[in-house]
Design brief:
Number of domains: 2
Shape: globular
Order of helices and strands: EEEEEHHHHHHHHHHHH
Mean pLDDT: 89
Number of helices: 12
Helix content: 55-70%
Number of strands: 5
Distance between the termini: 26 Å
Structural class: alpha+beta
């Protein structure tokens, strides 16, 4: 069953090699707060199919990212002195859903179980997956930033602009954390946006010129540099006030929206995983 927006109905989800390719929800009922329901006068079939996942399925790739970001990935990897361990990724893919941080009690034990299942040393598995996960986050977030800013949004502290700023600062943090910023610097980051345009050209055509785009990214980077260290002191003070050392969802949102600290930075300092519902809470409040 699937429910949302006051409607409910039977659902079919189809998975191939561990990835949900699509779903169909047969919207049949209207639901009420007391748990009761009544038949809808107009019933619909709500179909969701991942376009990028269809490309992955058709091409038989180890991950949909290699198809989605084909050109951008090919340009970025040499700059980072990295290569994808295709053998590990192909074996890991069908079991990737077992690493859902919200559904496992001990993530380290889960890594060990997964390593044993695919017959790979756990250290090799974690290194192969975690670094590439960061690469894919950078590519995913920079593409989102390219589209949203091109459509007229700007980074800010509130609303959709706050989401743009949050994910852009997450990109900065990941690049710094892995030592990649020293390899690509600002010009390399800006080139990622240009490479996304090549990947998207077949769907969207030529992107219109946006003369101030690079300056927007530069200004956000300088703001991040000047606020990150100072606001991290506020985070340290907040953690010391917590008897159990645990941050609430409200603490996470305050640190991100009021202090401008990225979720990854908060996770790194607090030694706590990013809450699975964090971005949903930010978007719906």
């Amino acid at each position: 069953m699937w429910a949302g927006g006051g409607n409910l109905g039977p659902s079919i989800e189809y998975f191939i090699k561990g990835l949900e390719v699509g779903n169909m929800v047969f919207m049949q009922y209207k639901t009420f707060h007391d748990g009761s329901r009544e038949e809808l006068d107009v019933k619909v079939i709500d179909v969701g199919i991942g376009l990028e996942r269809v490309a992955w399925l058709y091409n038989g790739s180890s991950t949909s990212y290699s198809d989605t970001f084909a050109y951008a990935l090919s340009q970025l990897m040499p700059k980072l002195n990295m290569e994808i361990d295709q053998k590990v990724w192909e074996k890991y893919g069908p079991y990737s859903c077992t690493l859902n941080i919200d559904e496992v009690e001990n993530i380290e034990d889960t890594w060990k179980e997964l390593a044993a299942r695919i017959d790979e040393p756990v250290d090799k598995l974690k290194q192969s997956i975690q670094l590439m996960k960061d690469v894919y986050i950078v590519l995913d977030h920079t593409r989102t930033i390219l589209i949203t800013i091109s459509d007229g949004s700007l980074p800010s502290n509130v609303g959709g602009g706050g989401n743009v700023r949050n994910i852009l600062r997450r990109v900065f943090h990941i690049l710094k954390k892995n030592g990649w910023w020293d390899l690509i610097k600002m010009e390399g980051l800006l080139s990622i946006f240009e490479n996304h345009k090549v990947d998207l050209e077949g769907i969207y055509g030529k992107f219109p010129e946006y003369k101030s785009f690079g300056e927007i990214i530069r200004v956000e980077y300088e703001r991040w540099l000047t606020t990150d260290d100072a606001q991290s002191l506020n985070l340290d003070k907040l953690l010391k006030k917590k008897k159990d050392g645990k941050l609430s969802i409200d603490d996470w949102i305050m640190a991100m929206q009021s202090w401008g600290i990225s979720a990854d930075k908060i996770s790194e300092v607090s030694k706590q995983p990013i809450p699975g519902n964090l971005y949903y809470e930010i978007a719906t409040r």
